[in-house]
Amino acid sequence: MAWIIHKTDHAIKQKMEELDRENRARFAAVCATWRAAALWHRRLPALPLLLATTGNSCATGRQGRTAPRNGRALRIALPWFPWGNRLVGSYDGGWIATASSSDQLLLVNLFSGARAPLSEQQSAIVCACPLPIRRDTILTSSRRCGRALHVKKIICSTDPSSSSCILAAMTNQCSIALCRVGSNGRWRTRGCSRYIAYGHLVLEDIAFVNGELYGITHNELFWFDISFDKDGNPVATPLRLPVIEMDALHAHPGTRYIFQLRSNIAIAVEIWPLISLGSSAIFKVFELSDSGRRWEEVMSLDGYALFLGPACCKAMPMPVTNVRSGVEGNRIYYSKQHSSPHNNKDCLARLDLGSCTVYCCQSKVGRHLERITSRGYHYEEWDGCNGCNACMWLVPPQF
């Protein structure tokens, strides 16, 4: 009966209609068994690697280094890595988004060398918000701000090589910036912080969930309605979602992350941000309820491992054994820039990643207190003369 698993649902339905009631029940039972076996052996996506760099071409340009979560350093030649650039985002399949010291953008696949077709106008983000007639009014002129923006994070709606891919960026001045890859258009910005009347949002993180763009501030969730102007450029309009009990998050001052868990919107909140005596940070995870109006705390990730970082947040499915290549399910793996992790270096494991110093620690609090365990990768903000360090999760292609 092994051939049943390769039949389409339509073919199986036709076959069942030819059977009597008793044989139909037997046939359905066999199909269920084979479907369960197929799920057991489903092919899982590649696990993220931790890409570490100093951001200094002289210090790290000689060799690329990635580190899996089991602590083993994996040295890989990365000929297409733009050495000296900051890491500001990634996408499944080996894509990274980087920004130069002058905030020139580049999206490149580290494993194939392919580049996203960004036009000259899209290679940097400038504030496209209209200038107000006065700072205290919403009446605007036809002139644009035009100030170059510092990029904090970039996410992709789909594969960056696709002309349907929309890039969303967090910047130092405008709440959100959007552009469509492969077009002759430009970045469109929203929520300039220079003018109070523009309603600037201090976003802590953004994510595409089921193709929709969401952002989170310290205590509010926003959905961005994406439309297109007459030139085909995407424009984002933020709409606050009336989720109740967001005030409960005020008790936790730590960093917020937003991501997709299964098919739902979820956030992770750092509630114990300090590393002490080799113990990692503790997080609480909340999932938006089916009604979309209440955050429900997640006590277990149910077959997922969660990877958190400033430039990439990803929930990865795990096999039924809940362990894969040293990675455990129901655990959070996070990377975090720290001003002085060396203060605790005597009780932290140091990873051999070459020029970028990374210390590893894991939670030691009882499971009954934290529910979901965590493992942290802390890197120093500056490492001597090596420049600005960075670590980012990167999902490689299937090998």
From TrEMBL:
Q: Where in this chain does the record put each KIB1-4 beta-propeller domain?
A: 73-340
Q: Specify the domain of life of the species encoding this protein.
A: Eukaryota
InterPro entries on file? KIB1-4_b-propeller
The record's listing under PANTHER family reads: DUF295 DOMAIN-CONTAINING PROTEIN, F-BOX/KELCH-REPEAT PROTEIN-RELATED
What is the recorded name of this protein? KIB1-4 beta-propeller domain-containing protein
Question: What species was this sequence derived from?
Answer: Aegilops tauschii
The upper taxonomy is: Eukaryota, Viridiplantae, Streptophyta, Embryophyta, Tracheophyta
